[in-house]
Amino acid sequence: MSFREHLFPPDHPRIAELTGLDAYSYAPVARHDDFTGDLIDGWKRLYDEPFSGVTSDGTLLPDLYELRTPAPEDAAPVAEMTAAAEDLLGLLDDESRARILYPIDSQEWQHWANPEFLQFDTGLRLEFQPAPVREAFLTLVDASLSARGAEDVRTMMRINGFLGDVVGLPGIMNEFSYNASIFGTPGTEEPWGWQLFGHHCAVNCVVVGGQMVVSPVFLGAEPNEIDAGPHAGTTAFTERIALGRRIMSELSDEQRADAVTHESMTELPPGRLHPGDERHLAGAFQDNRVIPYEGVRVGEMSDPAQEAVMAFLADFVSILPDGPARLRLAEIRAHLDDSWFSWIGGTGDDDPYYCRVQSPVVIAEIDHHCGVFLTNDSPQPFHIHTVLRTPNGNDYGRSLVRQAGHAR
């Protein structure tokens, strides 16, 4: 099914009432809209909770994350990141420099969100910055992430711009509808990092010495392809969605039945379907959520099924550069026996679905969604959200930052 079958008519209130608005004029409209206003009200109580971390039962597991000096081949590209950050800061005037910088343990880390409406105007809004400033921040992204990871970020941003053009709302959704911040002081010794967030793209990156944490990460797309214009042919999540299905294909019939917690994507127990996050549990403002394990234990799977789980997680971890990615995958593999895999939805080749892999050190989710700026009122394969978390206290690298003596 093509996403173009689900475009609103230009005169439909969903589009017409927002035409001509930008991020700042749209923000009060969103706060008073019946749908988006209810979302914001529901998240308000979570905005400023002191950070603890996602857990499976409300208790943080200790000693999962060790502050150490990695081998040179596994170290984060801190020098390159620092140079890029200093170049960016050198382009800013005093007011903008003060606006983009926050302490390393600032509460503003937790204010990222993935909707198109602006809840927190943290840092600098890239769309209103001069082109050299935008490009300098994206150079910092390039210096920090793998080539694949940086390209994935740019793909989400370009798809957002494409959606804005297709539906006629480029002031609300464009390629640079994102907020950018730096936390801590860029350098090679002390902890610091950066944050990028906006519609369908939120990335939090921290370095502590040579160690790197990229988490939480939210990447999504509506639609998951660009079919016209200079980036025509761009697609998102095709491989990741296939890797989720591959895990299911490697399970025994009994394990597959255990993995499927709900066969329907929409007929779920009260409270399990969120109006914005839908089936996601670890999205924005869920930094302290209790998410119980469910489904089938990975340690009980066959070797091919376990390797399918690792391939699925490796696709999420591919946002990290090679060395930190190797360390992250080793950390994940060390807890593979204690990992769980769960599934919601059908198991046919084209069925939309939700799945989650969860362990003491990782949560990775995929979910197919209903339309927001498209008309589909049931989940479809062309609207996808994905979330990556580091539970038990190391989102935002917070466990490592605390061990380094730089966080509350």
Notable features of this structure?
12 strands; single chain; 408 residues; 16% strand; alpha+beta; twelve-stranded mixed β-sheet
Could you characterize the architecture of this molecule?
The protein is of the alpha+beta class and about 400 residues long. The protein has two domains: about 5-45 and about 65-220, no CATH class; about 240-395, no CATH class. About 35% of the residues lie in helices and about 15% in strands. It is built from twelve helices and twelve strands. The protein has helices at about 15, 25-30, 35-45, 80-90, 95-100, 130-145, 145-165, 240-250, 255-260, 305-315, 320-335, 400-405, and strands at about 100, 125, 180-185, 190-200, 200-210, 210-220, 260, 295, 340-345, 355-360, 365-370, 385-390. Strands 1, 2, 3, 4, 5, 6, 7, 8, 9, 10, 11 and 12 form a twelve-stranded mixed sheet that branches. The longest helix has 21 residues, at about 145-165. It starts with 12 loop residues before the first helix and ends in a 5-residue tail after the last helix. The model has no long low-confidence stretch (mean pLDDT about 95).
